[in-house]
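Batch job 17 of 40 flagged for manual review because the log was empty.
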Amino acid sequence: MAQFLIDSVIPIRLSCLSSSNWPIVVSLWYVYYNEKFYCATQNTSKIISYLKHSPKCGFEIAGDHFPYRGVRGYGNASILYDKGEEILRMLLEKYFKGKETSALYKLLLSEKHLQNEVAIEIVPVRTFEWNFKKRMSG
């Protein structure tokens, strides 16, 4: 499971409660490190206000192609105000290999963008994994 989470370059689907107590799901880039998930976003994004409202969250990392495989679970999220740039750089290394000259890459590392970047740390409480490779082969 850990190697799947480290190697996958698909986003994490993160669910939480909105400030009006309705469930919402967002997709974010993530890195899996020390048995925790880390994401980065702007401190003004809705997901940050939602996680401040309630740190309990659900998550799923799963592809949309055969053979179906993934990890889902739930946990508690924390906002790390001093780790935004560090986590963003890890995310760019994972998701932007070979695209370091793109306009988006440069924008994400601009001084203006970085001054508002924060990290989200998700500590899993429970995880479930599935792999249908054997069932779907042949």
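Reviewer: the log was empty due to a logging misconfiguration, but the result itself is present. The radius of gyration is 16 Å. Unflagging and moving on to job 18.
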